[in-house]
Design brief:
This protein is an alpha+beta fold. Helices cover about 45% and strands about 25% of the residues. It has four helices and three strands, in the order ββαβααα. A three-stranded antiparallel β-sheet has the order 2-1-3. A hairpin with a 5-residue loop joins strand 1 and strand 2. Helix 2 crosses helix 3. The termini are far apart.
Length: about 90
């Protein structure tokens, strides 16, 4: 399985979208500052993930979720969760 995932920085409220075949390990890498792109912006909250059988499908989904339409999709899909993270 390949996972497309979205993290939110508790420090900056910015989002990071990525792809991995081991979601738990990758999330822990982000938390520990082992990722060049997210280092120094943690701690992180896992907002969303999707599982795909094919890596190409997961990468295509990553590209979509990074687009304007993809971000609107996520904000609409996660509106209740996002209100909780903002309040909490």
């Amino acid at each position: 399985m390949y996972y497309t995932y979205v993290l939110m920085s508790k420090k900056t409220d910015r989002w990071y979208t990525g792809v991995t075949c081991d979601l738990r390990k990758r999330f822990n890498d982000h938390q520990q500052g082992k990722s060049q792109w997210t280092k120094g912006r943690g701690p992180w909250t896992l907002l969303y993930y999707e599982a795909c059988l094919n890596e190409g499908d997961a990468r295509s989904r990553e590209i979509y979720l990074k687009s304007g339409m993809g971000k609107r999709y996520l904000k609409n899909r996660l509106k209740r969760s996002l209100s909780l993270t903002i309040e909490g």
